[in-house]
Amino acid sequence: MSESQPPAEGQAGPGGDGELKPLAVSTARVVLWGQLGWVVTLAVVLAVPVLHQGERHWWPWVPVAGLVLGFIGFSYVRRGRGNAAGAD
């Protein structure tokens, strides 16, 4: 087997004191991917009759609610997060 090598300087490891830096991710892009997931879910629920008939008649409203909330979230993120822009 191979030997375990210590993490290089500046890298975090178990018990190491390296600092982890946050990833640079576009929040708006994450919200849009979530929206895409809800669109696919809605399409599947509507395409498969057993998923929206009988006692499951309310199931299509779940992805619709996800889309509405995602739109609100996307609008909030694109606007600049309101008053949080100046927060420390």
Key features of this structure:
single chain, 88 residues, mainly alpha, 2 helices, 45% helix, elongated, membrane, transmembrane, transmembrane helix, DUF2530 domain-containing protein
Folded structure, characterized:
The chain is mostly helical. It has a domain at 27-81. It has helices spanning 27-47, 61-79. Helix 1 runs antiparallel to helix 2. It starts with 26 loop residues before the first helix and ends in a 9-residue tail after the last helix. Residues 1-20 are annotated as: Disordered.
Summarize the structure.
With 88 residues, the chain is mainly α. The chain has helices spanning 27-47, 61-79. It contains 2 helices and no strands.
| Rg (CA only) | 22 Å
Helix content: 40-55%
Low-confidence stretches: none
Total strand count, please? 0
How many angstroms does the end-to-end distance come to?
48 Å
Describe the global form: elongated
Based on secondary structure, the structural category is: mainly alpha
Number of separate helices: 2
